């Protein structure tokens, strides 16, 4: 069984995910209202996001090699981080220390460097291995549901991963926070790598937030 997947993102008026200052407080307040079991994010987005957690990457400590003790009533979500190339080697402790997640589970493929797999094992990170050259997202989500009981996963990522999720028909809903700003030609389109045409949506919620932001919720219509 595949968990319900919601894409959540803050965009400019012209559909860019970069080139403007998103309201992080509103972004994560709305995201947390979904009460997801896990958030899925691509490795590039995760690497960029380390700047929000610390100005400088701190050295690892002994505690970073141990799984955190998780209480049954902990409301935080896990992070599913797709990283088949191992670009987060040396950075994973930043996410493990975050107050916003229970712990990180890494999605890897058969082509993931062995050194990175060993890095994860030595630090007791759970990882899900699927796919040959890159992560098989559908299979990874199925395993996440079977192994961890995840029923709702929210994508808080960039255009590449979001496009893959849509391309494979895994997305049920799209949540967008519209920011009153136009980026122009230097913008980065939310679904810039999507090859599939004609994805039809149905608006089922619209709300003005703090007088200037608009939260839109769409249902992805099945073909």
From TrEMBL:
Its EC number is 1.1.1.193, 3.5.4.26. Residues 3-203 form the Bacterial bifunctional deaminase-reductase C-terminal domain. One of its GO terms (molecular function) is diaminohydroxyphosphoribosylaminopyrimidine deaminase activity. GO terms for biological process: riboflavin biosynthetic process. Keywords: Hydrolase, NADP, Oxidoreductase. Pathway: Cofactor biosynthesis; riboflavin biosynthesis. It comes from the Archaea. PANTHER family: 2,5-DIAMINO-6-RIBOSYLAMINO-4(3H)-PYRIMIDINONE 5'-PHOSPHATE REDUCTASE, DIHYDROFOLATE REDUCTASE FAMILY PROTEIN (AFU_ORTHOLOGUE AFUA_8G06820). This is Diaminohydroxyphosphoribosylaminopyrimidine deaminase. It comes from Methanosarcina barkeri 3.
């Amino acid at each position: 069984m595949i968990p319900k997947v919601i894409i959540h993102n803050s965009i400019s008026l012209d559909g860019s995910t970069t080139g403007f200052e998103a309201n992080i407080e509103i972004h994560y307040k709305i995201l947390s209202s979904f009460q997801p079991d896990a958030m899925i994010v691509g490795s590039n987005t995760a690497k960029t996001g380390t700047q929000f957690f610390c100005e400088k990457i701190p050295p690892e400590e002994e505690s970073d090699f141990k799984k955190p003790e998780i209480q049954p009533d902990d409301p935080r979500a896990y992070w599913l981080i797709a990283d088949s190339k191992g670009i987060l080697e040396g950075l994973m402790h930043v996410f493990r220390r975050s107050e916003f997640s229970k712990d990180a589970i890494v999605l890897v493929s058969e082509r993931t460097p062995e050194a990175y797999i060993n890095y994860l094992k030595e630090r007791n990170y759970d990882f899900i291995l699927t796919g040959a050259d890159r992560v098989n997202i559908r299979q990874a989500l199925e395993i996440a549901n079977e192994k961890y009981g995840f029923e709702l996963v929210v994508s808080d990522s960039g255009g590449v991963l979001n496009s893959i999720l849509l391309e494979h028909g895994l997305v049920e809903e799209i949540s967008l926070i519209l920011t009153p700003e136009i980026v122009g030609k230097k913008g980065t389109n939310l679904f810039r790598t999507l090859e599939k045409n004609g994805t039809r949506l149905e608006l089922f919620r619209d709300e003005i937030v703090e007088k200037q932001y608009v939260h839109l919720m769409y249902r992805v219509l099945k073909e």
